């Protein structure tokens, strides 16, 4: 199965909204994971790889309050990564 998945801006926003409907605690997961990372990293600088960066939700949730962290996002969809790039402090995108 080698079908290419393409998204447009409208589909990216719909995907984002539907995820929150499907997983009511979705945004709280980012807070929980960030707490874990902070417990492990303290105030150290870190480079994080986000596989399945999608629309950049993790990146926009963690980036502003962790200025010493940099992100590399990987996603099979260039359109999703474009959204992630605009919403985050991601330094590099890979698709």
- Secondary-structure-based class equals alpha/beta
Q: Quote the average pLDDT.
A: 82
The fourth-level CATH homologous superfamily is Vaccinia Virus protein VP39
Helix content: 40-55%
What is the overall number of helices?
A: 4
Tell me the series of helices and strands, N- to C-terminal. HHEHEHE
Low-confidence stretches: none
CATH architecture type: 3-Layer(aba) Sandwich
User: How far is it from the N-terminal to the C-terminal residue, by CA?
Assistant: 18 Å
**Looking at CATH, which topology would you report?**
Rossmann fold
Largest sheet: 3 strands, parallel
Radius of gyration: 14 Å
Q: Reading side by side through the largest sheet, how are the strands ordered?
A: 1-2-3
Level-1 CATH class name:
Alpha Beta
Instruction: Please state the overall shape, judged from the principal axes of the Cα atoms.
Output: globular
Q: Strand-residue fraction?
A: 15-25%
Total beta strands: 3
What structural keywords apply?
95 residues; alpha/beta; Rossmann fold; three-stranded parallel β-sheet; 4 helices
Provide a brief overview of the structure.
The chain is α/β, with parallel strands linked by helices and 95 residues long.
Explain how this protein is built:
With 95 residues, the protein is of the alpha/beta class. The chain has a single domain, classed as Rossmann fold. The two termini are 18 Å apart. The model has no long low-confidence stretch (mean pLDDT 82).
């Amino acid at each position: 199965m080698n079908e290419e998945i393409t998204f447009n801006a409208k589909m990216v926003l719909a995907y984002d909204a539907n995820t929150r409907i499907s997983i009511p605690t979705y945004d709280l997961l980012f807070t929980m994971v960030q707490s874990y990372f902070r417990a492990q990293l303290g105030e150290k600088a870190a480079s994080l790889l986000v596989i399945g960066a999608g629309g950049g939700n993790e990146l926009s949730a963690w980036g502003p309050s962790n200025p010493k962290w940099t992100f590399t996002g990987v996603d099979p969809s260039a359109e999703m990564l474009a959204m992630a790039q605009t919403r985050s402090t991601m330094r590099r995108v890979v698709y």
